[in-house]
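This part of the workshop introduces the protein records we will be handling. A record pairs a protein's sequence with a compact description of its fold. Comparing a sequence with its tokens is the quickest way to learn the format. The record below serves as our worked example for the rest of this section:
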Amino acid sequence: MPTDAHQRVLSLGSRHADRHHGRHRGPRRWGRTFLALVLAMGLIGGGLYAAVNFIGIDATVVRQKCTALVGSTLHTLTPDQASNAAVIAAAATKRKMPTRAATIGIATSMQESKLTNIDYGDNAGPDSRGLFQQRPSMGWGTEEQVQDPVYAANRFFQELETFDYESMALTDAAQKVQRSAYPQAYAKHEEEASAFASALTGASPSTLNCTLRPTDGAGSATTVAADLLAATGQKTDDLAGNRVRIAVRGDQGWAIAQWAVANAQKHQTESVSYAGLVWNRSEGRWVPAATTDGYVIISLAGSAK
């Protein structure tokens, strides 16, 4: 403790100096911290830029999805779900049923299996399988058959055709076929199902798009042709290298073109062109292009096998 006037003066001066320096030390430290943060953010940003542009990290972080646009509302499915929705819509079209039937079928599958080809049942139906959770023990077909999406969709529509479904509410029509324990559950899927049904039956041109990662293998033109024939009954006009060409007209063309986009992940498709537009995998959307009139052309990665 200070013992004389001189020491007290020195002590007061020292405390004053400490306070004086303390007022400057905080801002200086804050400034150094801010500078360090700016430099760190710059390094991180530069690293991400290099990763995206030189390493290709952008391909691994792409969220793969397929969308259907109705007005200003965008509905989203996974590529696998969209592929199954395309099977259901194609089955309705092939049977010359209206878009309403496709909507009922897609909504039903959304509720029963989330548009997934399930290979197991539940407590209510231990032997339930497939897109519609159809039960072999209830006469829907064999276990192998009900797990074939094309068979399952056609079997559903075979039942739907037996009554006046067009005059009924969607959930009532679906329930009459399915006999579910939750008869009102189908209604909540109607808007989304309608969006995809409208695109996949060709009623809404160029409204279905898929955002996908780059292809990771070669596509097969013969596989595309076989899948198209099984789903739609439509034969291909020409198979050349990695290209499939289908002669079409009107809504049929848009139904097939958007079927091809919905199956782009499965088939390693690079582009689909029709009616002055092309869907490119690199862009993930339909854009204007020079196309061959009267044909849907599907271009695949690599060489056809």
